[in-house]
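Reopening this ticket.

The earlier resolution said the output was attached, but the attachment link was broken on my side. Pasting everything inline this time so it's all in one place.
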Amino acid sequence: MATHGLLGMAVAAAGLFWMLFACASETKEQFDRALARESGEEE
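Inline output:
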């Protein structure tokens, strides 16, 4: 009955979290690279 809607919501939430996680890890990678570049210039 309501299981289908619940399942759809769960799948949508999982996809949303996956996109957020992928974007966050990519942004963190760029941030770490920029941070390493800045700290390298200071030395």
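Reporter confirms the inline version is readable. Helices lie at 3-42. The chain has a mean pLDDT of 89.
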